[in-house]
Protein: Pyruvate formate-lyase-activating enzyme
Amino acid sequence: MIVEQVQKPTIGYVHSLESFGSVDGPGIRFVSFLQGCRMRCEYCHNPDTWNIGGGTEYTPRQLLDEALKYKNFWGDKGGITVSGGEPLLQIDFLIEYFKLAKEEGVHTCIDTCGMPFTTREPFFSRFEELLKYTDLILFDIKHIDTKGHQRLTGMPNENILEMARYLSDRDFPVWIRHVLVPERTDYDDYLYRLSDFVASLKNVQKFEILPYHKMGVYKYEEMGIRYRLEGIEPPTKERVENARRILRTAEYTGYLDS
Ligand code: SF4
Structure:
């Protein structure tokens, strides 16, 4: 007797869903915030996503079926985005989810800080497999300086910058995002270094500055975690403009043609 082996789908751990996301990629998008992150960004407004292994369980098919309920709202540009937390921590789930999505012609996007990236196996082959089913990466570069990155997020950034270069070598479309935080990233020296780094990449379609805000602080109080940016206010309009000028964000217009 031949016993057919049926491979079980990988389970994804999802923190929350947003049916009509408008800031996480092109058009209107169904955004899944996946559970789990190993970074500890001082300004993180989703500390409730940190815990690895919590969240609601979905199979890739279940999550896509949920997303497809909103397909009529996506138009030409919209689709699905996975965010977090750090979605690349659940890379096997992403591969299956995006593979199913591409079979249905859905535009796919990953919002990542790049922390899990490594050219070592088994991650690297999995990452290359994932790129086959991915249309766009929203890449959050938290800090250009390694020590600054370590202080801000608890992790170094060498592998993150390596991922940015790798995607550039492959000419894989990315939108870069950078949070401007007074006393952390908002120094002209850092901004010029980041500007040079991003200008050295050939695949950046959009470059956005996200001014630091304090909207997630209440979660720290609820969770009994000390908020380490206590007393630091959002950047002024002038500093945001200064950052946009140094980073030359207006020059990254590839997203208009895509
Ligand atoms: S990478 Fe994102 S989810 Fe993780 S700590 Fe930083 S801001 Fe929060």
